[in-house]
Give the backbone structure.
Amino acid sequence: MTRVLKVYRAERFSPNSVDRDRAIIDAVGRLLAVQGCAVDGVNEEQLTAGCTADIILTMARTPQALGILRLKESGGCTVVNRPDGVAACGRSNIDRLMRSNGLPAAPEEGCEGYWIKRGDEAAQCRGDVVFARNGAERDEALRRFHARGVGDVVVTAHVPGDVVKFYGVVGTGFFRTFHTDADYSKFGDELLNGVPKRYRFSASSLKADAERLACLAGVDVYGGDCIVREDGSYAIIDFNDWPSFARCRDEAAAAIAMKVEAVFKGKKREKVKR
């Protein structure tokens, strides 16, 4: 029997979203259990090298957990998302990947304010994502980050337009978008962009860009936010490994389970060839 281990995300990485994050990984686990897998779960703080599984579904982000997951992966375990991919989803690295590969990032300069965001890890509290109305407020925000010991930050110009959330699973065809008036917000930062005007944009182009970014980072299960401008162009302003998929959980769980099964079978075929 195939053994599956679910690794739950530490609560500090799920601000105002603990139950939603647990719900999606549990939904995937239930689907795999129906297929005959033995499914167990553990919080990432309790993950140890002694944990055994053939497949690990992980939302973990701590360096300690990622280190253990790398050991499991090198030993032949199928890990989704891969630990190196999760580590690559730090905001600073995602910003670098977008700019160096011609993907639509937010501009670094503008005249309608700035966003200053923690770059080393995902936002864990409201103070990790700050809006500044001008250059002086931007510089003051940077000083506050540095005073907290956070030297890795990303600064981008504010982009007016509709905030659109996107969710995808690489290679499955699954991709969904939602305007923020129909979705959940962790900190309410989207309110600055006002009520969505529903500007038209190419969902297929956004899917292609988002999936390319996911592949560059090395994750299969991903989500993020973009701003759609009045002319239909867009800028990706946030990108994350394994979001909660709150508005499309059942569909997403089915796609993730399908992806996990495909990756697992692919690894088994590779072992046979050797």
User: Anything to note?
Assistant: The domain at 3-85+248-273 is CATH 3.40.50 (Rossmann fold).
